[in-house]
Structures are given as structure tokens and as C-alpha cells.
């Protein structure tokens, strides 16, 4: 099973469970039915966004710990500066 198939299967499972709860097919308490289940997709979206922002921030924070990637990026920046300077553009 490919990664895409796994993600699609998991998404279908999660959406089926949510729909069953939302349509009162799976019984639960009135408080959960009225206050938790309607806002669950928004909560999941915000949580997923927070996770992605954390992963992005952690990648930026630990970027200097990857010397090969750091050196490669700095080399590309120098090449770009030389090319722009040869065209008469000041990049300092």
C-alpha cells in the first residue's frame, strides 16, 4: 500500500467516524453531541496547522546543525550575488 493510499484510507475512516457521530448514529452524551462534535473539524485543522508551524520552526531552528545544507545554501547565495553583480545590480 502506497503512502497516498494510506492517507486516503485514514482520511476516509476519520471522516466516516465524524459523520457517524455528527448524525447521532454513534450515541454519546448530549454535551458532547452539542458542544464538542460540531467544532471538532475546526479544532483538528488548528491543531494540524500548529503542528506544521512547529515543524517548520524546528527546521529553521536546527538548520545550522546541518553543515552540508548550510554550506550548500551559502554557496548558492554567493553564486547569485556574483551573477547579480556582473549584471550591475548592487546586492549588499
Automatic annotation (TrEMBL):
It comes from the Eukaryota. It is a multi-pass membrane protein. The keyword Methyltransferase does not apply. It is found in: Endoplasmic reticulum membrane. InterPro entries: DPM3 (IPR013174). Pathway: Protein modification; protein glycosylation. The chain crosses the membrane at residues 7-25, 37-54. Keywords: Endoplasmic reticulum, Membrane, Transmembrane, Transmembrane helix. The keyword Cell wall biogenesis/degradation does not apply. Stabilizer subunit of the dolichol-phosphate mannose (DPM) synthase complex; tethers catalytic subunit to the ER. Belongs to the DPM3 family. Component of the dolichol-phosphate mannose (DPM) synthase complex. This is Dolichol-phosphate mannosyltransferase subunit 3. It comes from Lepraria finkii.
Amino acid at each position: 500500500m502506497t503512502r497516498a493510499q494510506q492517507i486516503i484510507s485514514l482520511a476516509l475512516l476519520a471522516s466516516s467516524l465524524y459523520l457517524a457521530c455528527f448524525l447521532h448514529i454513534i450515541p454519546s452524551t448530549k454535551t458532547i453531541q452539542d458542544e464538542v462534535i460540531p467544532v471538532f473539524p475546526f479544532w483538528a485543522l488548528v491543531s494540524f496547522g500548529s503542528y506544521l508551524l512547529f515543524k517548520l520552526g524546528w527546521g529553521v531552528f536546527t538548520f545550522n546543525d546541518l553543515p552540508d545544507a548550510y554550506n550548500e545554501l551559502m554557496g548558492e547565495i554567493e553564486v547569485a550575488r556574483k551573477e547579480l553583480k556582473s549584471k550591475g545590480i548592487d546586492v549588499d
